Amino acid sequence: MKKILMISTGGTLASSRSDGGLSPRLHGNDILNWIAGLAEGCTVEEEELFMLDSSNMQPEEWEILAERIYRRREAFDGIVVIHGTDTLAYTASALSFALPGIEIPVVLTGSQVPIEDPIADATENCRAALHMAASGCAGVYVAFNRKIILGTRASKIRTRSYDAFASINYPCAARIDSGGLVWNPFVKQERKSGCRLENHFCKDVFLLKVFPGISPDIFPCLEKMGIRGVYVEGFGIGGIPSVRRNLADAIGRAVEGGMMVAVGSQCLYEGSDFSVYEVGRRVLSHGVIETGSMTSEAAVTKLMWALGKYDSPDQVRRAMAENLAGELGSIYDWLGS
Question: Is the pTM higher than 0.70?
Answer without folding.
Answer: yes
